Amino acid sequence: MRDILDLDRYPLDRPGSPEWQALVDRCRADLARDGMFNLEGLMHGQVAADAAKEMAPKFKSESFLHEREHNIYFKDEIEGLAPDHPALTRFKTSNHTLCADQLEGSPLLRLYEWPEFVTFLAATMEKDALHIMEDPLARVNVMSYDDGQALNWHFDRSEFTTTMLMQAPDQGGEFIYRTDLRTDDDPNYDGVARMLNGEDPEVQALTLTPGTLNIFRGKNTPHRVGDVKGETERVIAVFSFYDRPGVVFSREEQIGFYGRAI
Prior knowledge:
CATH architecture: Sandwich
Order of helices and strands: HEHEEHHEEEEHEEEEEH
């Protein structure tokens, strides 16, 4: 894996070693404080750039254009909220998606299927174990955002989101978030409304560099990606893990996310 990863800086290949444990402890502390951690340059920059270049023709000819209007909850109705409540403001999300079955030979699949990777992630998230998906489409997705496209405000359904930036755009594409805006016990609808109205001073923006692994606790932290501008697309990979083996999306879920089913 050294040909694609900086394992001197990030010793994922030495689980249980003092260096590995120190990295795990640092990531846990970052998660507790910021709701995320980043391993900048985990994938060598040139490897990420070459992978993005190889995917470019497929994005033009094979990708699924995923466009939808939604509110921050991805739900049409929220119990206890009037339909015109500002927390239900609607936005547009648009991107092109490639699925795992379109990534043959990619370093992203090598990383995803590397046992030491999932062992490290489980340790940082303080979980007994994590498992890769069996789903041939959903296990690894790569999203491309062209000029004017963006991923808009939302809360994640899953506890953690695991991504790696492959290519940065000319302008925009910042990761914009507001840590712990709600809790499992308090939905904080008025606070959500203030944030969506641009009235929350605790909103932060982070500019990632290609090859950076980002682990994000997005269930209670709303986030979005800034509008991409320029001729260079923002390209980012999303890895899917579960706390149980054998997870496969239903046919309806595959069609909804990818426009096709296997």
